[in-house]
Write a structure and sequence with these properties.
The protein is an alpha+beta fold. The protein has 2 domains: 64 residues, Integrase, N-terminal zinc-binding domain (Arc Repressor Mutant, subunit A), CATH 1.10.10; 164 residues, Alpha-Beta Plaits (2-Layer Sandwich), CATH 3.30.70.980. Helix content is 43%, strand content 24%. It contains 7 helices and 10 strands. The strands form 3 sheets. A 4-stranded antiparallel sheet has the order 3-1-2-9. A 4-stranded antiparallel sheet has the order 5-6-4-7, with helices on one face. Strands 8-10 form a two-stranded parallel ribbon. A hairpin with a 2-residue loop joins β5 and β6. The protein is globular.
């Protein structure tokens, strides 16, 4: 009988996953700190710090990233790049990267796309299908909880609330993200996730082998060291099996 992964093997895999998450968070904080080292006046930095603390990153690591980004510990040479492309079945994909070597990054992204039935597009080729917005997800186990989130969110300036599968997603303009989030937290509601994302105007259905290729592509892209976020307009099943 075959043996499953050892406890040490599982721990090493978890440590590697955690290190990758921390790397992405540190890059986000570093870039955000270019807009000012004080989170009170820098919403992007504040959001990056919130994500890092939620991932159990220690404050010393966060502060080092802020100092590096603000220039206090010397200049950093990271740049933000957004790539646009297509996946299987013509799915539109946005790939947000932070890198110190754009030649390496574009080669990695292009290779991942071509290996999984996609291709890299030109700037502007798919971005028009997405819009930037805030999304705050809160667990709402019943209709009373949904109604409460709806009331609080709209009162705080949210644009809409969508509820399904025991969660309510509060949708707001990026400029209102922080105030809406703070209003919900002040009412005792703890978000399961809160971020400013690129949301597609419409979603396309992908099935069969194309769906498997797309899921593999997303995993491959998200696993690249220089990739921060991957957005797409595919309608994915909750459990692809």
């Amino acid at each position: 009988m075959g043996r499953g992964p050892s406890i040490e093997g599982r721990k090493n895999a978890e440590d590697a996953r955690r290190a990758k998450v921390f790397t992405k968070l540190i890059r986000e904080i570093t870039i955000a700190a270019r807009g000012g080292a004080d989170p009170a006046g820098n919403p992007r930095l504040r959001m990056g710090m919130d994500k890092a603390l939620a991932a159990n990153m220690n404050k010393d690591t966060i502060e080092r990233a802020i100092r590096r980004g603000s220039g206090a510990d010397g200049a950093d040479n990271m740049e933000e790049i957004r790539y646009e492309g297509y996946g299987p079945s013509g799915v539109a994909i946005l790939i947000d990267c932070m890198t110190d070597n754009s030649v390496r990054t574009v080669a990695d992204v292009r290779h991942a796309l071509s290996k999984h039935g996609g291709n890299l597009g030109t700037s502007g080729s798919v971005a028009f299908q997405f819009s930037r917005r805030g999304e705050i997800a809160i667990a709402t186990p019943d209709s009373a909880a949904e109604d409460r989130v709806m009331e609080l969110a709209l009162e705080a300036g949210a644009e809409d609330v969508a509820s399904a599968e025991g969660f309510s997603t509060v949708i707001c303009a990026p400029a209102d993200f922080e105030s809406v989030k703070q209003a919900l937290e002040a009412a005792g509601l703890k978000p399961e996730s809160a971020d400013i994302v690129m949301a597609p105007a419409n979603r396309v259905k992908v099935e069969g082998e194309a769906l498997e290729d797309l899921l593999d592509l997303i995993d491959r892209l998200e696993g690249l060291d220089d990739v921060q976020e991957v957005y797409h307009n595919a309608e994915l099943p909750l459990d692809p099996g």
